[in-house]
Amino acid sequence: MVTKTYEQLKKKYEQYVGEKGKVLSRLQEELEEITQKKTSLVEEAYQCVIKLEEIALKTISLATAQHLDFLIEKMKEMGETEKVKKLEEMKKTAENEGLWMKMKNFFGHINK
């Protein structure tokens, strides 16, 4: 009777461990897929920003400039230092152009 109980417990434990291992394995696979998808989407966003900059003749729209901080952060997480530098240059340019436009508007109102 004791042997039978031991064997039953052992079998239940092995089933539980096996099922738990399968679940963990499946979760790990899903995490890897999601991480790859995230990396792909961040890269795609970067390429779109670069293309928009080219199309817009080196000026950055306000909407694009608002998203640069997010993209810079994600590129840093991915270790893409060259892309981070490029995005930070774009951000600085956008900030300088924005300041220039504000000054132009301000002084334009004064001259009237």
Characterization of the model:
- This protein has 112 residues and is mainly alpha-helical.
- The chain has one domain (2-111).
- The protein is built from three helices and no strands.
- Helix 1 packs across helix 2 and helix 2 runs antiparallel to helix 3 (81-111).
- The longest helix has 54 residues, at 2-55.
- The N and C termini lie far apart (102 Å).
Major beta sheet summary: none
The fraction of residues in strands falls at under 5%
Topology pattern, helix = H, strand = E: HHH
Mean pLDDT: 79
Q: What is the structure about, briefly put?
A:
The protein is mostly helical and 112 residues long. The protein contains three helices and no strands. The longest helix is centred in the N-terminal third of the chain and has 54 residues, at 2-55.
Characteristic terms for this protein:
mainly alpha; 112 residues
List the SSEs and their pairings.
Layout: H1 2-55, H2 62-77, H3 81-111
